[in-house]
Write a structure and sequence with these properties.
It contains 20 helices and 22 strands. With 614 residues, the chain is α+β, with helices and mostly antiparallel strands. It folds into three domains: 7-215, 2-Layer Sandwich (Heat Shock Protein 90), CATH 3.30.565; 222-367, Ribosomal Protein S5, domain 2 (2-Layer Sandwich); 487-524 and 550-614, Heat shock protein 90, C-terminal domain (Four Helix Bundle (Hemerythrin (Met), subunit A)). It has a nine-stranded mixed β-sheet with strand order 1-6-5-4-7-3-2-8-9. The chain has a five-stranded mixed β-sheet with strand order 10-11-14-12-13, with helices on both faces. β5 and β6 form a beta hairpin. The longest helix has 24 residues, at 332-355. It starts with 6 loop residues before the first strand and ends with a helix. The structure holds adenosine-5'-diphosphate.
Length: 614
């Protein structure tokens, strides 16, 4: 090494954190480093193969696209060589010295704050290359980029604080990683151990892998094989390899079809959801092949966005091999392919949910947001997706979930609507006065308690021809219910309503006697086009100047003792009656989560208490 060419660099702070995590927290999964490095080599050669289509001059174009692994037990070294893209000096610094991916940064921070390491998530955030330092105390990356002009370089690091870059003359295009193994991890220089690992983790790599000169992997397209010839273990290994995943697949769909287009697909649903664990949006995990040739590892426009959590492979013999990534989105064939696959995936979930509701429940609790996003954004699949929704209701036990199918099967004869109420939690929804009338009539009410639910039901509008109706709104038609207890007469009721309307003025659109109330004296109903409290909160969070005067319809309960008393005192003690009228409205607004400013409420309350105590 000549001193003039040696460059010393320190790692970006995040890399040091990452290395610390990789080396100290991941004891159990050390062997995965091999899969990570093989996968990088494979990705790089895949990219080179695509470059070949557009680039005339590639350095050393005849080098074979193969992965060569060699071991030296005596020297305790392990070497992995590929002839992919290789890296320039700038790329070495950028790719192996900094973390570019913002999701990884966010995740690291998250993990630091919470102090825990979800081991099975590690592969999701591109720890990739750095996993070499789990087993090696020194790593040398020899490389030469694919462009004709370029230089052979070597990156050297002990994985602690930094790295050096030096010249590496005669280096061929691609990357050669030489790892010096830690004293207690010599096993990774044993041929039999490595052979086993390659077979286990990397059997599906699309390039030949040689170990000390002998060919190891089969390069088989599992998705084209017969289901009966594939074991559960093979499926799992395939999922973990293609999906760069560490969890178990929760569900699997393996099918082939000839019409309307030729499709062979092997698709998995994961059991862990990285988006819920603090990552950004996950990238589409379904790769597109044509007759075993990879067309695009992340085809944009093949599947609707909300399906981005699924992983696997779709192969269509009908796709022309030369279809470019740019034109793919406009291809009618690709759109058709996407439509068929999304239908099959939804059907698969529907069947699996029916077959094992408990398993589906735990899956749903982690992945529901994707289905909901689909309902809001994917018009073509909206109806089919609504069958996958689950929720609690006034007829389910707390924590148990049901679907629209269950609701409809339990609905009363002639019930034309599906009733729901949006709220923050089951407890909150159950204690709201809106529920009373529905409970009394044995009408089931769905509890939507996720922040996005309101938007989702509004997008949906109906299910199976039944309108989805929020019971918070006015205009819900309920049949007569034999209510108990004496009531005000019609005349007294009308007079009281007139009095209240006059007192409350513009703050209410109307005051009427209703059929909804059993235990409460009054209830505030929101106009059908009005916002729910959840929506208002969201608007306020987004815009601090957001102001929107709520006008409600007040419904009174003519059987309630307080209402009956009020009917008397409006003539005998009008001053008190006026105070009570205002307080009743505020109480109704509080119960509805709609009271904006409580200052008057509190002082009035104090006055009322003084009066009550004489
Ligand atoms: P990821 O593969 O998830 O991007 P890694 O830490 O494994 O993260 O690798 C970082 C980057 O280093 C890669 O994105 C790639 O640009 C580069 N790299 C790693 N290995 C190779 C290789 N064998 N050939 C070419 N580039 C590589």
């Amino acid at each position: 090494m000549s001193e003039t060419t040696l460059e010393k660099h320190t790692f970006q702070a995040e890399i040091q954190q990452l290395l610390d995590l990789v080396v100290h927290s991941l004891y159990t999964d050390k062997e995965i480093f091999l899969r990570e490095l093989i996968s990088n080599a494979s990705d790089s050669m895949e990219k080179l193969r695509h470059l070949e289509a557009t680039e005339k001059s590639i350095h050393q174009p005849t080098l074979p696209l193969e992965i060569h692994i060699t071991t030296n037990e005596e020297a305790k070294t392990l070497t992995i060589t590929d002839h992919g893209l290789g890296m320039t000096r700038e790329e070495l610094v950028k790719n192996l010295g900094t973390i570019a991916h913002s999701g990884t940064k966010a995740f690291l921070k998250n993990m630091q704050d919470s102090g825990s390491t979800p081991g099975n998530m590690i592969g999701q955030f591109g720890v990739g290359f750095y996993s070499a330092f789990m087993v090696a105390d020194e790593v040398k990356v020899h490389t030469r980029g694919w462009r004709e002009e370029g230089e052979g370089l070597v990156w050297i690091s002990d994985g602690k604080t930094g790295y050096e870059i030096d010249d590496s003359p005669d280096q061929e295009r691609g990357v050669k990683i030489v790892m010096h193994l830690k004293e207690d991890l010599k096993e990774y220089a044993e041929e039999t151990r490595l052979k086993h690992l390659i077979e286990r983790y990397s059997n599906f790599v699309g390039f030949p892998i040689f170990l000390n000169g002998k060919r190891i992997n089969e390069v088989e397209a599992l998705w084209l094989k017969n289901k009966s010839e594939i074991s559960e273990d093979e499926y799992k290994a395939f999922y973990q390899f293609t999906g760069k995943a560490f969890d178990e697949p929760a569900y699997r769909l393996h099918f082939s079809a000839d019409a309307p287009i030729a499709i062979n697909a092997l698709i998995f649903a994961p059991s862990e959801n990285p988006e819920r664990m603090g990552f950004g949006k996950v990238e589409g995990g379904i790769a597109l092949y044509s007759k075993k040739v990879l067309i695009d590892p992340n085809p944009k426009g093949l599947l609707p966005e909300w399906l981005r959590f699924m992983k696997g492979v779709v192969d269509s013999a009908d796709l022309p091999l030369n279809i470019s990534r740019e034109t793919m989105q406009d291809s009618a064939l690709v759109r058709k392919l996407g439509a068929v696959i999304s239908k099959r995936v939804i059907k698969m979930f529907e069947k699996e949910a029916e077959a094992d509701p408990a398993k589906y429940r735990s899956f749903y609790l982690k992945f529901d947001r994707y289905f909901k996003e689909g309902i809001a954004t994917d018009y073509a699949n909206r109806v089919a997706l609504s069958k996958l929704l689950r929720f609690e209701s006034s007829l389910t036990e707390s924590g148990a979930l049901c679907g629209f199918v269950d609701y409809v099967s339990r609905a009363k004869d002639g019930q034309a609507s599906i009733y729901y109420l949006v709220g923050g939690s089951r407890e909150q929804v159950e204690s709201s006065p809106y529920i009373e009338a529905f409970k009394a009539r044995g009408l089931e009410v769905i509890y939507f308690t996720d922040a996005v639910d309101e938007y989702v039901v509004e997008s949906l509008g109906e299910y199976d021809g039944k309108k989805l109706v929020s019971i918070r709104h006015g205009g819900v038609d309920l049949d007569d219910h034999a209510a108990e207890g004496d009531s005000l007469t019609d005349e007294q009721t009308t007079a009281l309503c007139d009095f209240l309307k006059a007192e409350l003025g513009d703050r209410v659109t109307a005051v009427a006697s209703g059929k909804r109330l059993i235990d409460s004296p009054v209830i505030a109903l929101v106009p059908t086009d009005g916002m729910s409290p959840q929506m208002r909160q969201m608007m306020k969070a987004m815009d601090e100047n957001f102001k929107d005067e709520v006008k409600v319809e007040l419904e009174i309960n003519p059987r309630h003792p307080l209402i009956k008393k009020l009917s008397e005192s409006k003539d005998s003690n009008p001053d008190l009656a006026k105070l009570v009228a205002l307080q009743l409205l505020d109480n109704a607004l509080i119960a509805a989560g709609l009271l904006e400013d409580a200052r008057d409420t509190v002082s009035r309350m104090n006055t009322l208490m003084e009066k009550a105590m004489g």
